TrEMBL record:
Ca(2+) binds at D322, D325. This is Penicillin acylase family protein. Signal peptide: none annotated. The lineage of its organism: Bacteria, Pseudomonadati, Bacteroidota, Flavobacteriia, Flavobacteriales. It comes from Flagellimonas alvinocaridis. Binds 1 Ca(2+) ion per dimer.
Length: 797
C-alpha cells in the first residue's frame, strides 16, 4: 500500500510539474503590454498606452520612432498573420501547411506579384519619407522577431521566424490587389456557358448594367470548350485553400453638414472582407508633434488603409472594376515556343519556380508567359492539354506606386492634398471615401482604368492572336467616377455600378443595387443625422429588394393547393418588411425558396459543377432579381423534361414545394421553429482551427447573427444544398466618425485586437460585434493616459 501511495504521489507531483511548466510556457507566449523594452535606433523614449481593448496609443517625439514602435507592437499581436500574408504572393504556403497548398502556391506564383515587388523595390528612392518610415516599421517587426516570444502557431507548425524586408510589404499589397478575383470566377464561366448554350441564354443573364437600378452618381461642378470551366475550377480550388481572407465589397457613406443635426460631417464605413481569426485590421493611434492618425492597418503594411484625425477621415470600398482580361493564344503550327500577335510570331517566356513542401519533396514547375501575362495551362493539371489561355492583370503592368499613395493619403492635411495622392493607386480598384472638419464630402473611384475597342465585351475570353482586342490606352484619372460636395449633400458607395466614365459604362463585377437602394432611401429621407442614427443605419438589416421580389412571384400561387400551415407562411411572406431579425421565420423560408428557384431554373442547363461555380459569382447576386422578373425566357424550361416546356410559374411553385419539404426535414413540421438564428451563424476560423481538436482554442464563435446577404449589415454566406447560411464575409469593422464630437467617434472589430490566442484581447469584442455594439476610438491624450489599462515604454538602447 505504501508503494502505491508513493507512486501516486510521484504521478501527482509529475502532473503538477507538467501543469506548472505548461502554464509558464503559455504565459511566456503572451504579448507584453506593460513594462520597459529597449528598441535599437530610437532617438528618444516612446510611450505606448494600451486602452481597455488592447489598442495602442503611441506617443513619440518623431514619426520614425513612432512607426518603429508600431512595427513592434503590431508584430507582437499579429506576427502569425503577417507571416501568412507575406507568404501568399511568394508561393510559400506549402512550407507551412504541406501539399494541400501546392495548387494555391502555383497559382499565386504565376501572377508574378513577387517579381513585380522585387522590381519595384529595386527602383525605390531609399531616402524618400515613405521608404524611411517603411524601413522603421520593419525594424520594429524584426526587433520583436529577434527578442520577443515566438507565437504558438510557429511552435505548432515547426516554422522558423525570418526577418521582414521591403519586398514583403509590397507582396502584401499585391495580395490585397488581387484578392476579390471575380474575373477568374466569372469570365471563363461565361465563355463556357456561351459556347455550350448559345447567345440567347446569354441575353437573359444580368451580365451588363441594368439601367433601371440605382447607380452611384458622378458630380463635377464644371466638367463549350472545357478549358473555360477548368480555369474557373482551378482558380476556385486555389482560392478556397487560402488561410487568409479575401476582400469582398463594402459600404460607406459620408454625410455633409447640411444633413446632420450638429452641422458637421459624419463619416461611416464598413469594408466587407472574408471573416478569419485574427480579423483583418489592427487598430493603432499614432501621435507625434507633427503627425497624428487613428488608423486601421493590414498585417505587414506600415500605413493605415482606413483612418482619421481631427481634420479628416477616409475609408474605402471595393470599386469592383474589371482589371483582368483573359486571352486565347495561338501557338505556331511548327514551333511550340512561339505564339501569334497580329502578323508576328513572338517567343513565349519560360519561368521556372520551385515550391518547398512541408514533409515532402520540393516541387519544380515551369509556366509560360506572353506579353499579356502568364499562360494558365500547366499551372493547373486539368488544363495542361488545352489551347493556351493567358491572363492580363493591370496590377503588374504600370509602375507600382500604391505604397506612395497610402503614405500620401495618410499624411494629407486637406482635400486637395488627399486627392493628389489618389492617381498613384492603379490596383486594386477602390472607392475612396472622404470627409473633413471643413464640411467637405467626397468620393473617388481610384484605379488605372483603360479603354478597350468599341463593342468588345471583356466578360468573355478574348482573342489574343488578332491584335485587335488589346487595350487602346489608359484613361486619365480626371475622368474616373467621382463626386465632390454634390448638391444632394452626401456621397456613398455599396460596390454598385457607377455612372458613366469618359462616355461609357466601365465594365466590372458590380454588386446588385440592393444595399445602394437602401442607403439612398435612408439618406434622402432624413436631414438631422447624428452619431446614434448613423450607427443604427450601419446595422440596418432590411432588404430593399426582396419584399418586392416576393410580391411579384407570390401572384403565381394557387391558394387552393396550399395547406393551412403553408397559407399562413405565404401570408407572412406577402407582408414581410424585409427585416432579417433572429426570431423571424420568413427569411429562412425566403432563402430556401430563392435557392431552389435558381437551382431549378439554371442547374439543368449548366450542370451541377458549373452551377455551383455560378453561385460564387457576383453575377449570381445580380441575377436573382433580374431573373425572377423575367416573365419568359429559355432558362425557365427544364431541358431534362423532353415532353414538357416549363414556365416561370411552374418553376416558382416547384421551388416553393422543394423549400417546404427541405425545411420540414431539417427543423420539423412546425414553421415557428424555422427561425433565422438557427441557420444564420458566424464563426471566425483560424487556420490551426481546421484541426477539430484545436478548433475551440483558435476559432471564435459561432454566434447567431442578424443581417443577410446584400442588406446594409451585409453578413453574407455562400449558397449550397445544406440550407445552412454560415456567414463567411461581412463588415471587417464598423466605423462612425463624427466631426462634431471627434473624440467620441465609435468603432468595433469582429473578434479582437490581438491575433495571439493567449491574449485577453483575442476575442474580447466578438460578442459585442455579434450584438451590434460599439466602443470609442479614443483620441484625447488626457483621457487615454488616465484610463490606460497598461503602459509599455520603449527606451533608447
Amino acid at each position: 500500500m505504501k508503494k502505491i501511495k508513493k507512486v501516486l504521489w510521484a504521478i501527482a507531483i509529475l502532473l503538477l510539474l507538467i501543469t506548472v511548466g505548461a502554464l509558464i510556457f503559455v504565459n511566456s507566449l503572451k504579448p507584453d503590454y506593460s513594462g520597459e523594452k529597449p528598441l535599437p535606433g530610437l532617438q528618444e523614449e516612446v510611450k505606448v498606452f494600451y486602452d481597455t481593448y488592447g489598442i495602442p496609443h503611441i506617443y513619440a517625439g518623431t514619426e520614425v520612432d513612432a512607426v518603429k514602435a508600431l512595427g513592434y507592437v503590431h508584430a507582437q499581436d499579429r506576427l502569425w498573420q503577417m507571416e501568412l500574408l507575406r507568404r501568399v504572393a511568394t508561393g510559400r504556403l506549402s512550407e507551412v501547411f504541406g501539399e494541400d497548398l501546392v495548387k494555391t502556391d502555383k497559382f499565386f506564383l504565376s501572377l508574378g506579384i513577387d517579381e513585380y515587388s522585387a522590381q519595384t523595390v529595386a527602383n525605390l528612392n531609399m531616402k524618400s519619407d515613405m521608404v524611411v518610415l517603411s524601413r522603421a516599421y520593419l525594424d520594429g517587426i524584426n526587433e520583436f522577431i529577434k527578442k520577443g516570444p515566438t507565437p504558438v502557431e510557429f511552435h505548432l507548425t515547426g516554422l522558423e521566424k525570418e526577418p521582414f524586408i521591403l519586398e514583403d510589404i509590397y507582396n502584401a499589397v499585391g495580395y490585397m490587389a488581387f484578392s476579390f478575383a471575380m474575373a477568374h470566377k466569372t469570365d471563363p464561366l461565361l465563355t463556357s456557358l456561351r459556347d455550350k448554350l448559345g447567345e440567347e441564354y446569354m441575353r437573359d443573364l444580368a451580365i451588363d448594367s441594368d439601367t433601371s437600378t440605382v447607380w452611384i452618381k458622378n458630380y463635377r461642378k464644371t466638367s463549350m470548350d472545357s478549358l473555360a470551366v477548368d480555369i474557373t475550377k482551378s482558380v476556385t480550388q486555389a482560392l478556397d485553400k487560402l488561410p487568409i481572407p479575401q476582400f469582398i465589397g463594402s459600404n460607406s457613406w459620408v454625410i455633409a453638414p447640411e444633413k446632420t443635426k450638429n452641422g458637421k460631417v459624419i463619416f461611416a464605413n464598413d469594408p466587407h472582407i472574408g471573416f478569419a481569426q485574427p480579423s483583418v485590421w489592427y487598430e493603432a493611434h499614432v501621435n507625434t508633434p507633427n503627425y497624428e492618425k487613428y488608423g486601421y492597418h493590414m498585417a505587414g503594411i506600415p500605413f493605415p488603409i482606413l483612418g482619421h484625425d481631427r481634420n479628416l477621415a477616409y475609408g474605402m470600398t471595393m470599386f469592383e472594376n474589371d482589371d483582368i482580361d483573359f486571352y486565347y493564344e495561338e501557338v505556331h503550327p511548327s514551333d511550340s515556343t512561339k505564339y501569334k500577335v497580329a502578323n508576328t510570331w513572338l517567343d513565349f517566356e519560360y519561368v521556372n519556380k520551385t515550391i518547398k513542401v512541408k514533409d515532402g519533396e520540393d516541387i519544380s514547375f515551369t509556366y509560360k508567359k506572353t506579353h499579356h501575362g502568364p499562360v494558365l495551362n500547366g499551372i493547373a493539371d486539368q488544363i495542361s492539354q488545352e489551347r493556351p489561355v493567358s491572363m492580363s492583370w493591370v496590377y503588374t503592368k504600370p509602375k507600382n506606386e500604391v505604397l506612395d499613395a497610402l503614405y500620401g493619403i495618410s499624411h494629407a492635411a486637406n482635400l486637395d492634398e488627399f486627392k493628389n495622392a489618389l492617381p498613384k493607386i492603379h490596383a486594386p480598384g477602390l472607392n475612396i471615401m472622404y470627409g473633413d472638419s471643413e464640411g467637405n464630402v467626397a468620393w473617388w473611384a481610384a484605379a488605372k482604368l483603360y479603354q478597350m475597342p468599341d463593342s468588345l465585351s471583356t466578360k468573355f475570353i478574348l482573342d489574343g492572336a488578332t491584335g485587335k482586342e488589346e487595350p487602346l490606352h489608359y484613361i486619365d484619372f480626371s475622368e474616373n467616377p467621382s463626386a465632390i460636395n454634390p448638391p444632394w449633400h452626401y456621397v456613398y458607395s455599396a460596390n454598385n455600378q457607377p455612372d458613366s466614365i469618359a462616355g461609357q459604362l466601365y465594365p466590372g463585377y458590380y454588386l446588385p443595387e440592393n444595399r445602394a437602394k437602401r442607403i439612398v432611401q435612408l439618406l434622402d429621407a432624413k436631414n438631422d443625422w447624428d452619431k446614434t442614427t448613423a450607427s443604427e443605419m450601419i446595422l440596418d438589416v432590411t432588404s430593399s429588394v426582396n419584399p418586392s421580389l416576393i410580391t411579384e412571384l407570390i401572384k403565381m400561387f394557387d391558394v387552393t393547393l396550399l395547406t393551412k400551415e403553408q397559407l399562413v407562411q405565404v401570408d407572412s411572406l406577402k407582408n414581410w418588411d424585409g427585416r432579417y431579425s433572429l426570431n423571424s421565420t420568413v427569411p429562412t423560408l425566403y432563402h430556401r425558396c430563392e435557392y431552389f428557384t435558381v437551382k431549378n431554373t439554371m442547374e439543368d442547363e449548366m450542370g451541377e459543377e458549373m452551377f455551383n461555380k455560378f453561385l460564387a459569382t457576383h453575377l449570381f447576386k445580380r441575377q436573382i432579381a433580374w431573373g425572377a422578373n423575367m416573365a419568359e425566357g429559355q432558362w425557365w424550361d427544364n431541358v431534362n423534361t423532353k415532353d414538357v416546356v416549363e414556365t416561370r410559374r411552374d418553376i416558382v411553385l416547384k421551388s416553393f414545394s422543394d423549400a417546404w419539404i427541405s425545411l420540414v426535414e431539417d427543423f420539423g413540421p412546425d414553421p415557428s421553429q424555422w427561425t433565422w438564428d438557427k441557420v444564420h451563424t458566424l464563426e471566425h476560423p483560424h487556420p490551426i482551427g481546421q484541426v477539430e481538436s484545436l478548433r475551440k482554442y483558435f476559432n471564435v464563435g459561432p454566434f447567431s447573427v442578424e443581417g443577410s446577404r446584400e442588406v446594409i449589415n451585409n453578413l453574407a454566406f455562400p449558397y449550397d444544398s445544406t440550407g445552412l447560411y454560415k456567414v463567411n464575409s461581412g463588415p471587417s469593422t464598423r466605423r462612425i466618425v463624427d466631426f462634431s464630437d471627434i473624440e467620441n467617434s465609435i468603432s468595433i472589430l469582429p473578434t479582437g485586437q490581438s491575433g495571439n490566442p493567449f491574449s485577453k484581447h483575442y476575442k474580447d469584442q466578438a460578442e459585442m460585434y455579434a450584438q451590434g455594439k460599439f466602443r470609442k476610438m479614443m483620441m484625447n491624450q488626457e483621457e487615454i493616459e488616465s484610463t490606460a489599462e497598461s503602459v509599455l515604454i520603449f527606451t533608447k538602447e
